[in-house]
Amino acid sequence: VTIKAVVFDAYGTLYDIKSVAAVTEQAFPGHGEIITQIWRIKQLEYTWLRSLMRRYQDFSDITRESLAYALRVLGLECDDGAFERIMDKYLHLDLYPDAAAALAGLRDRKLAILSNGSTAMLNALVRNSGLDRVLDATISVDARKIFKPAPEAYSLVESVLGVPPTETLFVSSNPWDACGAKAFGLNVA
Ligand code: LAC
Known about the structure:
Elements: E1 5-8, E2 15-16, H1 21-27, H2 32-53, H3 59-73, H4 80-89, E3 94-95, H5 99-104, E4 110-115, H6 119-128, E5 137-140, H7 151-154, H8 156-161, E6 168-171, H9 175-184, E7 187-188
Parallel strand pairs: 1-4, 1-6, 4-5, 6-7
Antiparallel strand pairs: 2-3
Lactic acid is lined by residues 9-12, 115-117, 148, 174.
């Protein structure tokens, strides 16, 4: 197989979503870890429920609602300022330490992100981390109004990059995402 494009998941694959724990811990000492875990689980659950119900709302709304859920279920009161400070971290997530070098080593291929993130969230994140200089495209499922692992979401890669699934390698650290991409017909790492 000739791989002409390598496409990455964003949250948890290139970007360390656990890096929000520093901010949640600062806002709620002793609870940073558990907030971060419940937040992520609920965030994913909301994407799948909304996709199944065909009640799409973008990932920024989903991320807000799931953070509100996590705080509520833990009985934590949060003022607007603290809530926005936590949310803002999603636009400034840390790249995993080896991500930039790995991308640089693949520069002879087309490189892109395919993420459930909204276009605005992803563009800010990519710019703030400097990946805009390396990536050929940042693709948001927002164009199809359905979240991964729906096939319609993965089909965006060929529409945007013009490379067929058989010549594309999709990279994700999220098992459900790797399975979804494989089921759609992409090569997967
Ligand atoms: C992404 C998340 C859901 O699509 O991992 O980037």
